[in-house]
Amino acid sequence: MFTPQGPSLRELAVQALSSVERGYDLLAPKFDHTPFRTPDRILDATAEALRGRGPSEGLFEAGLDVCCGTGAGTGVLRSLCRERAVGVDFSAGMLAAARQAAEGRPGTGPAVTYVRADARALPFAAAFDLAVTFGALGHFLPAERAAVFAGVHRALRPGGIFAFPVAAPPHPRSALYWTLLGFDAVMRVRNLLWRPPFVMYYRTSSLGAVRADLRAAGFAVELVPVPGAVRRPGGSPSWGLLVARKP
Ligand SMILES: C[S@@+](CC[C@H](N)C(=O)[O-])C[C@H]1O[C@@H](n2cnc3c(N)ncnc32)[C@H](O)[C@@H]1O
After folding, report:
1. Alpha carbon distance 140, 46 (integer Å)
2. Do 23 and 65 belong together in one domain?
3. Is residue 134 part of a domain?
4. For the chain, how many structural domains are there in total?
5. Are residues 109 and 230 in the same domain?
6. Which of residues 106 and 63 earns the better pLDDT score?
7. CA 57–ligand 1 middle distance (angstroms)
8. Residue 191 placed within a domain
9. How many angstroms separate the alpha carbon of residue 233 from the centre of ligand 1?
């Protein structure tokens, strides 16, 4: 899972004992060499599933990547948006790494602007017709999701969509099920014993709960199958795309 260019065990331990923001500041230079960066196959499949859903010939005008980290999802925005792509994150270190990576990746599509802000208080109003987020929902306690979703809803224009991948729940007889259960248990103990807390839970963002919170924020929600999604041993897709539309 970790490559030699990735963080050492000691570095990971120091990061895990920091706050979320400080932890990511420390991890930033090596983040792209960890399994926490969203893999390109998920980013590419997301872009494909969203192509055709925008208001101008299937494309979008302006896109926002919430909790953009080192910029993994901003490539999705650049491939789908004609005018503007914005990445928002509260870790200055992650944003610095994103800006540096973008310099070596000219590519096509609009240049990305990076904004430092807390996703629980997004500073945008009716500015985007697409918002995405990758790999960050577990950083919000269930009670915090309402503020995140309300901020995304406010940031979108009418008809705009907020899309993100959701993993299918692993089977209780799979190794993944027990790995995630174990991770969350260790995190809960850590957060009982240590300050500042590091919020990252895999099992608090069930599809049902996230759907209900999106609806409460005013979105119409649809789960979109992704043709290229890797299949689980039983044949079911391992993930799908949640597409929430602001009416
Ligand atoms: C696992 S990384 C994912 C980064 C990127 N989206 C990706 O898929 O590779 C989670 C990111 O969420 C950011 N984050 C966590 N809580 C946040 C908050 N309250 N406001 C803004 N960013 C936050 C972290 O700083 C980090 O960059």
Report:
1. 22
2. no
3. yes
4. 2
5. yes
6. 63
7. 31
8. no
9. 30
CB of 114 shorter than 6 A to ligand 1: no
Q: What's the CA-to-centroid distance between 149 and ligand 1, angstroms?
A: 15
pLDDT over 90 (residue 230): no
Answer whether 116 contacts ligand 1 (Cβ < 6 A).
no
- pLDDT for 29 beyond 90: yes
pLDDT in tens, 71-81: 999 999 999 99
68 lines ligand 1 (CB under 6 A): yes
> How many Cα atoms sit within 13 Å of 92 on the Cβ side?
1
Q: What is the pLDDT of residue 2?
A: 67
Q: In the prediction, which pLDDT does 1 show?
A: 58
Distance of CA 30 from the midpoint of ligand 1 (Å): 14
Q: 223: closest CA among 157, 175, 164, 160?
A: 164
Which domain, by its residues, includes 228? 39-169+206-245
CB distance 135 to ligand 1 below 6 Å: yes
pLDDT digits (tens, 9 = 90+) for 142-151: 999 999 999 9
- CA–CA separation, 212 vs 105, rounded Å? 38
Contact of 167 with 239, CB cutoff 8 Å: yes
Q: Whose CA is nearest to atom 13 of ligand 1?
A: 67
Question: Is residue 164 within 8 Å of 133, Cβ to Cβ?
Answer: yes
Average pLDDT over residues 11-30: 95
Say if ligand 1 is within 6 A of residue 69 CB.
yes
Q: What is the CA radius of gyration of the chain?
A: 17
Asked if residue 72 has its Cβ within 6 Å of ligand 1, the reply is: yes
Q: For residue 197, is it within any domain?
A: no
Q: Are 30 and 53 contained in the same domain?
A: no
Instruction: Tell whether 61 and 75 lie within a shared domain.
Output: yes
